[in-house]
Amino acid sequence: MNEKAIGVFDSGVGGLTVLKALIRRLPEESTVYLGDTARVPYGTKSPEVVTRYSLANARLLMRQEIKLLVVACNTASSVSLPALAQQLPFPVIGVIEPGAQAAAAATSTGRVGVIGTPGTIASGAYQSALGRNRPGAQVLARACPLFVPLAEEGWTEGEVVEAIARKDLVDFGPFGIDTLVLGCTHYPMLKGAIANVVGAGVKLVDSAETTATAVEALLAEHKLFAPKGSRPRRRYFVTDLPERFAEIGTRFLEQPVESAELVDIQM
Ligand code: DGL
Questions:
Q1: What is the pLDDT, as a whole number, of residue 267?
Q2: How far is CA 249 from CA 21, 190, 243, 266, in A?
Q3: Where is 10: in which H helix or E strand?
């Protein structure tokens, strides 16, 4: 059982920012990643559709014999975790709770900003998780729909990116946040531009790192660590365009995605 892989899924390539943190923190664990590149983006779809896709993704990874599932997609985490946890025979973890915990620990004033896809922001998942982790927190949440295509196309800095960020983040200045949650897999790629716009006084919380810490705790709790000295395997599955995934993925993962296998997900 412990030699089984950790399964990770996302709507596409963005979850590789979470996988990168996982590999860094748990280098001996094997991983199997599924990017649902045929159906991306999830961020503009309804909770019902995203949950249906998430269940199908989980079933595909289950056939790869995984011991734990990481829902690396913020949108999927914000709407489908209860359904996944109910139907799967192994632990499931998303990125919202770890991100909210990190933000609760980072904020001094309790005034926290959250940015994410329209679906994540509309779900209210970060807002509730922050309320639980930092009672009395005042949270302002805004969708930044253009950040995902920008990051995918490699537009991560410069005047155009900062002009869009200035428009999307305009409300955070007057609200007076001291912490901003990057509540989407792609946003860590734009960290520099976002920091330039919100200013050095605002801490940026990236849920990838805290999710990796939470996965480590979950492996410990369920006694699921791979045996010491294990040689990890890295496998990648996608539902469309494996070459594009490997190319963009290498940038997100900061190490080569050698190849990705094309799979068909039966709904
Ligand atoms: N992975 C998604 C998220 O973190 C962003 C891309 C999408 O909309 O599917 O919310």
A1: 66
A2: 14, 15, 9, 24
A3: strand 5-10
